[in-house]
Amino acid sequence: MDGAERGAEGRHVPVMLDRVVALLAPGLQHPGAVLVDATLGLGGHAEAFLQRFPDIRLIGLDRDPEALRLTGDRLAPYAERVTLVHAVYDELPQVLFDLGIPAIDGILFDLGVSSMQLDEAGRGFAYSQDAPLDMRMDSTAPTTAADILNTYSSAELARILFQYGEEKFSRRIADRIVKARETEPFTNSARLSELVRDAIPQAARRTGGHPAKRTFQALRIEVNGELEVLRRALPAAVASLALHGRIVVMSYQSLEDRIAKQVLAAGAKSDVPDDLPVIPAGHEPYLKLLTRGAEKPTEEEVAENPRAASARVRAAERVREKGLVA
């Protein structure tokens, strides 16, 4: 979702679309194949798959009610083949159970904050424009970024800034936040952005983009529980794949990509000791990696859509089920 852009007609233009389609296509060739778009956003990927594969059924998940409303309108021509669900992607097993779907043939995760959320000033995701410090992907969720800034201890703030933002000056920024909120609680993003800029030494501001970028990322991840959700969601998604079903994960920062790499690599490795001369039946790897490391967008795509620059794609195919190898 991070890499989405608006096209000439204001439409959502997804990142690395052709490559994502190519990776998932082999599992979607048979009539009635089920594809899950776990991060529906504004529906660019979903629409492309529905157009190119006229026999698939698409299950679209999103935690943002507004995204579901807008995408429902966009996908209306395919309504008979589409089911949209207000859910976070770690709820996939329950969603599939409720729909009576025992296994799926493909699943796409396009992680991070969507273009719609970035572009709506009132959501507070962007450090470059003043807005209420909200950052909730699901507007019905209880905790906002302002709540965290105004209630977490200095140690807690420093932890999330370092852990989720990889911010070197996390303690310094956290201490200043706690001191500043004694005078006035935080409500808007411009004040936070300015505080972070002032807290970072001038020499360190010259590289790495906007000085507040890492702090805003950390707050967004904490507000939405993104990494914990992803750690639950990816193994559940792999477990939901039918034999020869495929999973594609598109991430936009190193923490997400690391989780994707670990989950897919674990499935592509036998669960017996490395020094065992023969792998017993049923203990072979259950995934086959489809990408060498993480694939990146082309220079042409980044030139057309700068938000795509940080995109990283990993993919795998399920090759074993219930102890059998295909």
TrEMBL record:
Transmembrane segments annotated in the record for this chain: none
Subcellular location: Cytoplasm
Region (Disordered): 293-314
Binding site for S-adenosyl-L-methionine: G43, G44, H45, D62, Y89, D110, Q117
Reaction(s) the record says it catalyses: cytidine(1402) in 16S rRNA + S-adenosyl-L-methionine = N(4)-methylcytidine(1402) in 16S rRNA + S-adenosyl-L-homocysteine + H(+)
SUPFAM superfamilies associated with the record: Putative methyltransferase TM0872, insert domain (SSF81799), S-adenosyl-L-methionine-dependent methyltransferases (SSF53335)
One Pfam family per UniProt: Methyltransf_5
Name of the protein in question: Ribosomal RNA small subunit methyltransferase H
Gene: rsmH
